Structure formats: C-alpha cells, structure tokens
C-alpha cells in the first residue's frame, strides 16, 4: 500500500486519485488560514516553485479541527491562499486529519510516520509528511518545522 492508493476531493470539488502524483516527491500538509503557522504558505509555495520541475509536489489539505482555524468554505480557502500567498500547488477540500472522521490518507500517513514518542495523532495545523517517488511515507515534521528546514530532505529524495 502507498499514498497512491487513496483519493481525495480537490478544492474545486473534483475527486482525484493520488495516483496522478506517482513519481513525484510529495510534501503533504494539513493547513489552516487563521493559524500562527499560516505564513508557512509562503515557504511552501517557494519550495514548490523551486522544485516542481524537478519532481516535487506540495499537497495542501485544509483542516478545521484545531481551534476552528479554518472556518471558511472551499471557495474562501482557495481565494485566501491564492490572494495572500500566491498558492499554485494543489489544494484539497477540507478534511479531518484525526478522530473517527479522519480522511483515510491521514490515517495512513500517521500510521506510517508517527510523531514524537510514537504518537500517531496530528496535534496541530501544518504537520508535514514527506513521501518518496514510490509513494512511501519517509518522514513526519512538526508544525513548527519551517518548510525550508525540510529542503535538504527533499533534495535527497529528488536526487539533486
């Protein structure tokens, strides 16, 4: 099993198989528009721009499970990301990333890349998961880990 076995609804409502990203290095992030970490959108977009032609794709999954920091609907989220941060990487519809209603992708990610001291649950917005070109979860990063702190790990997977 790999991340390619899952599908998700894009922010525009289209359901896609993550298989369309096969062969790319993926950085999967649960995002929020009203969080202290929201400015990370800038660095996520910069990383995407810098490495997209070399095989990196950033996938953003808005989530409203942490203090209601993603209250808007998909249109509001999409507009916010584009207007304030110039986001062009794929964004998806809002999902739950923990609990009974967690999206199966995030159940898979947390199972395969537990957090500190083996904790599986995502604790906050902007938790990041790095996935190799074969769809295997390589590593999980805490919300406070800035996107450019992951750059060397990305370059290694891209073989740069």
- Distance from N terminus to C terminus (CA atoms, Å) equals 27 Å
CATH superfamily: Glutaredoxin
Shape: globular
Order of helices and strands: EEEHEHHEEH
Radius of gyration, taken over Cα atoms and rounded to an integer in Å: 14 Å
How many strand units?
Answer: 6
* Strand line-up of the largest beta sheet: 4-3-5-6
Task: Please tell me about this protein's structure.
The structure is a single chain. β3, α1 (40-51) and β4 form a beta-alpha-beta unit. The chain is built from 4 helices and 6 strands. It has 160 residues and is α+β, with helices and mostly antiparallel strands. It is globular and about 40 Å long. It has a single domain, classed as Glutaredoxin, CATH 3.40.30.10. The chain has helices spanning 40-51, 74-85, 104-112, 151-158, and strands at 7-9, 15-17, 25-31, 56-62, 128-131, 137-141. The mean pLDDT is 94. It has a 4-stranded mixed sheet with strand order 4-3-5-6, sandwiched between helices. GO terms for molecular function: peroxidase activity. Keywords: Oxidoreductase, Peroxidase.
Give the helices and strands, then pairings.
Elements: E1 7-9, E2 15-17, E3 25-31, H1 40-51, E4 56-62, H2 74-85, H3 104-112, E5 128-131, E6 137-141, H4 151-158
Parallel strand pairs: 3-4
Antiparallel strand pairs: 1-2, 3-5, 5-6
